[in-house]
Structures are given as C-alpha cells and as structure tokens.
Specification:
By secondary structure, this protein is of the alpha+beta class. The protein is 24% helix and 30% strand. It contains 10 helices and 19 strands. The strands form 3 sheets. Strands 1, 3, 13, 14, 15, 16, 17, 18 and 19 form a 9-stranded antiparallel sheet that branches. Strands 2, 4, 6, 7, 8, 9, 10 and 12 form an 8-stranded antiparallel sheet that branches. A hairpin with a 4-residue loop joins strand 16 and strand 17. Helix 5 packs across helix 7 and helix 7 crosses helix 8.
C-alpha cells in the first residue's frame, strides 16, 4: 500500500520565511516556516491524502521521524539523552503532567539524528572543539577580563569543558559573558582572525540574534560545521549541537527529548544538561557521497532509522525496502510505484509512504528523493 503524506509547516520563530517555499516552488507566506513533520509522532502526525493522519494507520509505531527543516536563524543549543538516560528521566518525572514546564523528558526514547543539507550551504555547531584549538581561537580576541577568565578556566585540570559550561550557564558569569561577546563581535568586525575568521563571523551573527545570551559563549566552544548540498552530519546522544542556517532533510528516532544549553528563552535545566552531556571533544565527521551511482547512503550507528538520497535521471529504478518506508521528493518530478500496483506522482515537499507489506519501491521520472526507513 502506498499513501500520500503532507503536513503544515510548523511556525517556530527560528524558521525561514523563504526556504521551504522556494523548495516547493510556491509564494512565501511571510511567516516563519521551520519544520514539516512526516511521521506518526503524536506531536504532529502527517496528514494522509483522502483523510486522517498517519498515526491512525500505523498505531504510532514508527521508530523514526522524518522532517524538512528550514533555519532562518539559530536554533537553541541542545543535547539529547541516551536511551538509558531517557528511560530513567521519564520514570523520574512520571508524577508531572505532560505539559508541565519543569518536565525535561517527553518520552522514554533516545533521539539520535541525521541532517543532510538541501541548500548549497548549511551551517551548524556540532560537538565541542578540542580545548587547545579553542585556546588558539581566543588569541584572536582582545584581552578583556572575561576572555582571561575563560582562558584560565579552559586551562584548568579536570573536565574543563564541563566546568566552563556550568560556569557560563549557572548565572555567575554574566559580566564576563558580556565582555567575551563584545570581544567576539569586535574580532569578527576586524576580519583579521586568520583560520578562525569564518567561525568568529558565525558566532558574531549568533550574538546579534541572541544579545547577552551565555549560549553565545557556549557556541564559541563548539565546532563550526558548514555542509554543502548532499553532505550530512550525524548527531549522537550527548553531543551538544545547534543548527544555524539552511535547509535540510532531518531524520531522527521518534522522540521529543531535548535538553537546552543556550540561545533560547525556554527553560534551561543546567544540572540535567550537564548530567547527560558528553564533553569528549573532537570533530564531527561530515558524511559525503562515496563512489558513483544514483544512490547515496548515509550510514549511521543506530537501528532506529536509515536514510538514502536517490537521483532519478529518467531510468527506472527498483529498490529493495524493509519495513515502513517514506519517499520524500526534494527536486523534479518523480513517480513512485509499488509491487501491489499503487502509484503516486510526488510533488516536491511531499512523501509517499509504503507500509511494511511492500518489499520494493520503483522510481521513475527525473528528480531527487530521500528514502527513509527503519535501520537495517
């Protein structure tokens, strides 16, 4: 069985007013459009052509959630728990109402995620930079008291990154935060920071959106990752991250568990954030196409989901699938058909959903799709 899925863009304040409309070839609404959810998550299940929503078909059993994401301004800095941490947190908060503002855990699942860029440039902050590299970056800043404090704390023994993040978000460093942000903005305006110029410009842009937010200095500790179209990044549990700008396809485990670490007016539970944060520093690998052919896989170390990019160039492609599968159109015009005889012509920005009874999907036309399913 094939079903046609659509959904209404979510109007989060960080959403773009043009990227989703540009992808779909329609006139912008003038309002921010942040995400389109294609899944059976109770927060916003996809609409099924002809009536109803996807959760009524699946019973809410999909292990993944597929999205289009359009960032016009930075998202909050955030981290997601491991499945063990999520189960413990969910049990610990069982006495709270589901909409209680003190609740951190919305379900008992983890939320690893993969983002693949659709725009020519997609900027993010992903993972914590090695401390020696951040100390090198600080050499590009004017020597204010706040910068000296940050340098000294990063040079301390023990888990310096965890201690610095606790200091920044705990409310004790407001004056130092202002001084560090001022130094970032000044250095970015000078444009003389060598290898750190692009990073400092990105952080200065974040500061313009969130003036005085201690998360701006947390962002200074993170890797600035720039993706080109078709490149991806996998974000594991415990990894601090924030998307800054651009359009992408995102897939994640079916969860809404988010602990925030700055760049947001929402509540930040600093002790719980620090409890699940993995402060192991290092670069986050960029996933790129390897070899030739129409199919680009994005291998991830989790079983919740799998994602492939497929370029359809006029030849008919029949691909094996396993479990409930989504085919998301992102360019051109592609027709999806199944062995059971169903056929759908996909408009860009819509999904064909093949239930678990389908073993293959056949693609024809000219365009680009992303195929999402359970991990294999």
């Amino acid at each position: 069985m094939l079903l046609s899925l659509t959904n209404t863009p979510r109007d989060y304040a960080w959403g773009s007013d043009s990227l989703l409309a540009g992808l779909e070839g329609r006139t912008p609404t003038g309002a921010p459009e942040a995400e389109v959810w294609f899944g059976d998550h109770p927060g916003d299940p996809a609409d099924v052509a002809g009536g109803g929503t996807l959760d009524q078909v699946t019973g809410g059993t999909l292990p993944y959630l597929l999205k289009l994401l359009a960032a016009g301004r930075p998202l909050s800095i955030q981290v997601h728990p491991t499945i063990e941490q999520a189960r413990a947190g969910w049990a610990r908060e069982s006495g709270l109402d589901t909409d209680d503002p003190q609740r951190n855990y919305r379900d008992d699942n983890h939320k690893p995620e993969l983002l693949v860029a659709l725009s020519d440039r997609f900027e993010s902050l992903s993972g914590l930079r090695p401390v020696p590299d951040t100390l090198s970056l600080l050499e590009a800043l004017d020597d204010s008291r706040g910068v000296r404090q940050l340098r000294a704390r990063l040079s301390a023994e023990g888990d310096a990154l965890r201690d610095v993040i606790a200091w920044l978000l705990g409310g004790e460093a407001d004056d130092e935060v202002d001084e560090i942000i001022g130094a970032i903005v000044t250095a970015a305006a000078r444009g003389e920071a060598g290898e750190w110029s692009t990073t400092l410009r990105a952080i200065a842009d974040v500061a313009e959106t969130y003036p005085g937010d201690p998360g701006v200095v947390v962002a200074l500790l993170m890797n600035h990752v720039v993706l080109e179209r078709g490149e991806g990044v996998f974000l594991r549990a415990g990894l601090l991250h924030a998307y800054l700008s651009g359009l992408g396809v995102e897939i994640m485990a079916a969860s809404d568990n988010v602990l925030r670490g700055g760049l947001t007016p929402k509540r930040i539970d600093v002790p719980e954030l620090l409890a699940i944060l993995d402060t192991t520093p290092g670069e986050v690998p960029v996933l790129r196409a390897e070899g030739a052919g129409p199919v680009t896989p994005y291998p991830v170390p989790v079983s919740d989901f799998a994602l492939e990019r497929v370029v359809v160039d006029g030849a008919v492609l029949t691909l094996d699938v396993s479990g409930p599968t989504m085919v998301l159109a992102t360019a051109g015009e592609v027709t999806v058909s199944s062995a059971s005889g169903d056929e759908l012509v996909l408009a860009v920005g819509t999904v064909a959903f093949a239930d678990a009874d389908e073993a293959t999907v056949t693609l024809s036309g000219v365009g680009e799709v992303f195929i999402a399913g359970p991990g294999r």
